[in-house]
Amino acid sequence: MPKTLLIGLDGATFTVLQPFLDGSCEEGVVMPFLADLIEGGYSAVLKSTNHPLTPPAWTSVCTGRTPGHHGIYDFVRFEDMGNEMFFTLYDARDIRTETLWNVAGRAGKTVVSLNFPMMAPPEEVNGALVPGFVSWKHLRRNTYPDTLFDRIKQIDGFDPKELSWDFERESQIGEAMPDDELFTWVDRHLPRDKQWFNIGKHLLEEDGPDLFALMLDGTDKIQHQAWHLLDPAEWDPASGESRQRVRALVVEYFRQVDGYLRGLHEAAGDDCHMVIVSDHGFTGSTKVVRVNKYLESKGYLKYRPHDGSDAAKRRDMANFANLDWEVSRAFCPTPSSNGIVIRKQTMQNPNGVAEDEYEWFRDKLIADLLAMTDPETGEKVIAEVLKREDAFPGEAMENAPDLTLILCDHGFVSVRNLEPQVITRPVPIGTHHPDGIFIMSGPGVQAKRGEVMSIVDTTAVVAHAMGMDIPEEFEGHVPQDLYTADWLADHPVRIAGHTDAGAAPKAHATDEDISDDQREEMLAQLRLLGYLED
């Protein structure tokens, strides 16, 4: 079988890519390789997980399972202790299902997996693995095999600090940046994806794996901060010189990404299957929705008393819900979750919602949430409220929030103790949209635009492209029109065998923990991305 390349472009959306592909933007064709790939291959909108967030969505790509099965819902999970709430980060040890890397290894296939989130601590694979969201200080201990770091540090130009974010250097970054600051911010991100490309190309050429998987995340970071420069509906070509300068640099980033895709394709050979996907799409968000403040006004929660001390002020501005846990019955734990948790009555939490009143309580809560409006316009701000059993069915459903909110502008909520409950941003910021991208080229692939696909289809497509049976537990499928009839006749889709729950990362969890400084750096990154509030 030809080699299979799985390339992740975090947050990539056809909304931004299309002008770069067809040359309708002022810069002309910016991504000629990707344009040719789409013209000669298969493309479709790829629907993300019900909450289109990086950890659950990429974990679905890596496992072929939806969050209700793999168990990852957010960057952060929490433990309710009754009168206190403990927050910590999700990592690979929380994943309940087997990864594609392991399934491939059991089938005798070799794998290189680079920069996918939730993959640390790294599992043993039949090849090489470097997780994403790892600080450069901890890169050596988070590579597999343990000899890999010494190999990649021999690559010309290798710089582990460029590979990760320099949190000290970027600590002053905020949501609203003047043009010169935004230029510097974008400029410092260009080398990062180049580092990942260099490592990937080196391992692809030297190891020749059956499956090469690389995720480039600059697309997500830059769209978060520079959406007003990228969205064709927001960008004004008559903008001033400083804004034009930032736009030129952002466009240069996408031009470089196109070169990375071409370089990896050439390294794999013309007969490779190349699958390019995003974990979600992007759009602009205009509203700040302080959902916990609204729930307080409805009597569902109470913020922790404020004594005016510096410590109290810090708690009020914390990244997590800072509540009076003795009386709070429903709350949103983090901005990135867009989830509402109903606290059940237990020995530790006697004031929680009793089992026999849960349905009534939840229905009333849903009605109140859907009634939340922007006081300035009177418009509703929450478009949809998903129940847990509808959004995340599966054996890991009990860890999902009771309700998941979809805001009218697809933005993330705020959990801060601030008024007013809703405000309008002067400039839209980039936020996640459920519609991502799927692009595939290679032997037998039809040249056409397909119907909307599911994010878990990606894993089934990759497994089939590698000549593997698709395990029965994989929830996705290979689109019937992805290949020509002749190719499918020679390479039928076979659904057979099972994943191995005993091989899931969670099954191999140890007592080893992520260090405090690594955890703090990861939290700092989430703040910079806007998933946590400063």
From TrEMBL:
A Pfam family assignment: Phosphodiest
Listed PANTHER family: BIS(5'-ADENOSYL)-TRIPHOSPHATASE, ECTONUCLEOTIDE PYROPHOSPHATASE/PHOSPHODIESTERASE
Protein name (record): Nucleotide pyrophosphatase
Signal peptide: none
Gene3D superfamilies tied to this protein: Alkaline Phosphatase, subunit A (3.40.720.10)
Originating organism: Roseovarius faecimaris
GO molecular function: hydrolase activity
